[in-house]
């Protein structure tokens, strides 16, 4: 992984809430076109990391470079317009708005000069066309996750951050979402960085994996290690 191919380069990142540091001198890189997982037990800082990368939590030290640009001090909407999409834990769709209205929200975070290809979104998630006038709050968890990913796709991100995309979703829908995320990667070249606890999803999707503990990256697993189910279970054990 040579430096000029790194889409995301994080060095010395320290961040947290108030005077409490959750992330401590954290370093890692994600190359263009990779699918990389962040794993570890509950409470080690995985969600805080994604929120800091998105600018929702201010960092106290370190640098976040995205597409060769220092974005460390940019606001959330500025990072989004540069090409970072974010699907938070719990999805956070607008429940009283229709599916179509939720998708239109994604246009506000679109990169300048890029048109919206809704047909491509519907190709990945046909249910969003079928139920465009339905309120998002009436969707199941899996359907809301598809809507959240579709809304992020509207902005045509180069990098998509997903926080526990399998949480609260039926196993058969988890498989479908996994397939679609990989399709985004393979067909659109989208880089994926995701936090996950679901072992099957991690093993199916990730090409590499960073292991977090106590706010730091403590290990990096390559694809052969990711296929070692017992090793992965030990790492994810509560």
Q: Name the CATH superfamily classification.
A: P-loop containing nucleotide triphosphate hydrolases
Runs with pLDDT <50, length 5+?
none
In terms of DSSP E residues, the strand content is 25-35%
Tell me which CATH architecture applies here: 3-Layer(aba) Sandwich
Structural class, by secondary structure, is alpha/beta
Number of E-state strands? 10
| N-to-C order of helices and strands | EEEHEEHEHHHHEHEHEEHH
Please give the share of residues in helix. 25-40%
Tell me, what's the shape? globular
The level-1 CATH class = Alpha Beta
Care to describe what's here?
By secondary structure, this protein is an alpha/beta fold. It has one domain: P-loop containing nucleotide triphosphate hydrolases (Rossmann fold), CATH 3.40.50. The chain contains ten helices and ten strands. Strands 6-7-8-3-9-10 form a six-stranded mixed sheet, sandwiched between helices. Strands 2-1-4-5 form a four-stranded antiparallel sheet, covered by helices on one side. The two termini are 32 Å apart. The model has no long low-confidence stretch (mean pLDDT 90).
Please outline the helices and strands.
Elements: E1 6-17, E2 20-31, E3 35-39, H1 46-53, E4 59-66, E5 69-70, H2 76-82, E6 84-87, H3 99-105, H4 118-124, H5 127-130, H6 141-154, E7 159-163, H7 171-188, E8 191-195, H8 199-205, E9 208-213, E10 216-221, H9 223-226, H10 229-236
Question: What key phrases describe this protein's structure?
Answer:
single chain; globular; six-stranded mixed sheet; alpha/beta; 10 helices; Rossmann fold; 238 residues
